[in-house]
Design a protein that fits this description.
Length: 355
């Protein structure tokens, strides 16, 4: 089971909460603003080091307190791991089994998870940054050494952009170009391999959820008929005018096509949610296969914007993955799961096991 228990201290409205999780199904219910989404957010923070709601650290610290602390036990087939997070104005501190660890990457390795929240449709309808993060999350888990490659790329991009803003001479800029192009090519090639893995799984998952074929078009971030070197050379004048690098994986995207129409423009909000859920479930399946362990899947109000049939199809897919699931709902709707889940009630930031 991915998450055995979680203890929170001064996270949002949760003064001090402890959750003992079931290895299969967990349902947290309560009225709006009771704290159930905050609890789900705390679990996600333990595996990501950031809020899936885009909240700042100050927003996450309980009013009047200097910091928040999260502590969890994570189990795999071979070991049990203690994961701790402390955050305050002094910054994020991560500890794995009592030892200091290098930030969010260590959390993602210890507790790999995915989230379906009410804004999940933005994976389809929103800008390309979310879709790039989607590809990078899969690559982090399935491509050996991808994290270091990504860090190398981000450093090179930052240095090249700084040189462009400072008006560095072409001869000096050429030195940054070589490092940027090498790292950019490695990122691009890894993303291409990830897309090749995603396509057949998404086609099957999307067909089951939407009853329509879903296809992907990977947009690498520069003219596909040009090499990285040719793209950089061709955009050099524009780069200097803009003070930033115009060609590269930092401008990549995924085009999602549903029934030969671009999904971002043509489908309804409910269809966007189902398609985005299909993307999340596809990523979860691929990474579970690679890691040979169940992942944690967090569902924040999965029934929102879905009719009964759509919700039933979604939950059937979720259950079929064999993940550990933690879901939230307004009422204790036991029909979401094939077997009775561990049931928890949240009221005014206090958690109580029910049933």
């Amino acid at each position: 089971m991915p998450l055995r228990n979680l203890k929170t201290t001064d996270f949002r409205c949760l003064e001090g909460v402890e959750l003992e999780a079931d290895p299969h199904y967990n349902l947290i219910y309560g009225a709006n603003a009771s704290g159930k989404t905050s609890l789900l957010e705390a679990i996600a923070y333990l595996g990501r080091g950031k809020s899936f709601r885009g909240a700042t650290t100050q927003d996450l610290i309980r009013h009047g307190r200097p910091e928040f602390v999260l502590l969890g036990k994570v189990d795999s087939e071979t070991r049990s791991t203690t994961v701790g997070v402390r955050n305050s104005r002094d910054g994020l501190q991560v500890r794995i089994d009592g030892e200091n660890a290098p930030g969010a990457a260590a959390l993602a390795e210890a507790l790999p998870l995915q989230v379906v929240d009410p804004e999940v449709h933005n994976l389809v309808a929103g800008g390309p940054e979310g879709r790039r993060r989607y590809l990078d999350w899969i690559a982090f888990h399935v491509e050996h050494g991808y994290l270091e490659t990504w860090r190398r790329f981000r450093r090179a991009l930052k240095q090249r952009n700084a040189a462009l803003r400072e008006g560095t001479s072409p001869a000096v800029l050429a030195g940054w170009d070589q490092e940027f192009m090498a790292a950019a090519t490695a990122i691009h090639e890894a993303r291409e391999r990830v897309v090749a893995l995603v396509e057949p799984v998404l086609e099957e998952v999307g067909s089951g959820l939407l009853g329509s074929a879903v296809t992907l078009e990977y947009r690498q971030g520069w003219n596909k008929d040009l090499s990285m070197e040719e793209a950089i050379a061709g955009s050099s004048e524009r780069d200097r005018e803009q003070g930033s690098t115009q060609a590269g994986p930092q401008r990549g995207d995924l085009k999602l096509v549903l029934e030969e129409r671009q999904a971002k423009k043509m489908v309804s909000r409910g269809q966007q949610k189902l398609l985005a859920c299909g993307l999340v479930l596809t990523a979860t399946e691929l990474v579970q296969t690679q890691l040979e362990r169940p992942l944690l899947l967090l569902l924040d109000d999965p029934a929102a914007e879905l009719d009964g049939d759509s919700l039933e199809r979604l939950m059937a897919r979720v259950i079929g993955l064999g993940c550990q699931v933690v879901a939230t709902a307004l009422e204790p709707d036991m029909r979401l799961f094939p077997d009775p889940p561990a049931l928890f009630h949240v009221e005014q930031g206090a958690l109580k096991k029910a049933g």
